[in-house]
Amino acid sequence: MALLPPDPVYTIRNVDNSPVYSLAFSFLPGGLERLLAGSKNGYVYAYNLQTNRVQQKIKVGQAPILHLIHTNNQLITQEKGGKFKIFNLTNSGYKEETLIDLDYPGFCRFEANTKLETLYVPDRESSITIYNFSGEKTGSLTPVNTSPKLGDPMCMKYVELTSEKPCLIVGYEAGWLLLWDLNTSQCISKLQTKECPMSVDFHVEQQRGIIGNASNMVQIFSIGRKDLSLAHKMDVAIKNPGINKVQSRMDGKVFVSGGWDGHIRIFSWFSLRPLVVLTEHRQAIQDVVYSTEKVSLWNAHIMAAGGLDGAITLWDLYNNKQ
Fold this sequence. Notes:
Elements: E1 10-13, E2 20-28, E3 32-39, E4 43-48, E5 53-59, E6 65-70, E7 74-79, E8 83-90, E9 93-101, E10 111-113, E11 118-122, E12 128-132, E13 137-141, E14 153-162, E15 165-172, E16 176-181, E17 186-192, E18 197-203, E19 208-213, E20 217-223, E21 230-237, E22 243-248, E23 254-259, E24 264-268, E25 274-278, E26 285-290, E27 303-307, E28 311-315
Antiparallel strand pairs: 1-28, 2-3, 3-4, 4-5, 6-7, 7-8, 8-9, 10-11, 11-12, 12-13, 14-15, 15-16, 16-17, 18-19, 19-20, 20-21, 22-23, 23-24, 24-25, 26-27, 27-28
């Protein structure tokens, strides 16, 4: 590991230094590249990645924006307290079209299948409720005859293990990880983990996933190719406990964790060893995301991290430049 951690390519101070709870890259037709920051004050700030300045301020509500995604023409947000909103992008800005209000007190982030315009929304009583983008309930994932109790959903990951097998990985408060078949709404595999999972991700080509929790261990798991069974593979130790977010890069070469200590740790998928610890942030990391396309200013897939210190850091690390 390097003696001195590298510097970010850029650091954005969020508007009014508001703590950052969620991030999403947006690549719109016409070459508009933006980073959206969901903030504690109920705003989403859109930063133009050509200038790294705020281009648009979107008032969503009064509560912190726990999660957001952006499709080609829609912004989907989740507020603390259980309000999920879908905004259509129009010539005059964002217009709210759909509100799903569940009075949900937890912190589990929704998942989405944007191709089918389907939302998977955390609910009470260990349930996941399924909605279309019009706000109509279309189904649910509800455990039956569970002993012991699973507790509330804590994290989710939508995966397509095959073209005919869309699944949802869900981590629950009691430490269980369940794999749901979305074609049948049935649980097809379970795994008892060591802690309450806070964040989960899975890389299909690697056939391995990562779990972040309150401990000082990043847990690695797998899904069997034939029987789709969940299995614990190993634990990777970190110095300080507490992880809010784990994320695998699309190319399957590295993955990252964002910690309560404000540190961003990048790991090799090949060796499962830490490559670098980034110490730019002064408070807990709330979200880490990778851009799905190259950001033209740096001609690279950029990693963005945001935290309670109100900073958003942009990183160009371990990219093979062509």
